[in-house]
Design goal:
The protein has 75 residues and is an alpha+beta fold. 17% of the residues lie in helices and 19% in strands. The protein has a domain of 49 residues. It has one helix and six strands; from the N terminus they run E-E-E-E-E-E-H. A hairpin with a 5-residue loop joins strand 2 and strand 3. The model has no long low-confidence stretch (mean pLDDT 80). It holds the Pfam family NUDIX.
């Protein structure tokens, strides 16, 4: 099994509203997220994915944390 890294963004406006993106593959709303491009840092991935999925440019405020996860089977 190959390992893939990814990122997601939590975008909150000044009124405390959370920004979600409508997924193309499922009829769900989700946090903007995606896979890390080769040589890309997690912060760069988060900014790029937010722009690609919402059309909005964001600035990086702070990194919440880095959590490694291994997903063996998708539900």
């Amino acid at each position: 099994m190959s390992k893939t890294s990814g990122c997601f963004t939590i975008i909150v406006n000044q009124r405390g509203q959370l920004l979600l993106a409508k997924r193309k593959d499922y009829p769900l709303w989700d946090l903007p997220r995606g896979r890390l491009d080769q040589g890309e840092q997690f912060e760069e991935c988060a900014i790029r994915e937010a722009r690609e999925e919402t059309g909005n440019s964001i600035f990086f405020h702070k990194r919440a944390n880095k959590h490694p996860a291994i997903i063996e089977k998708l539900l």
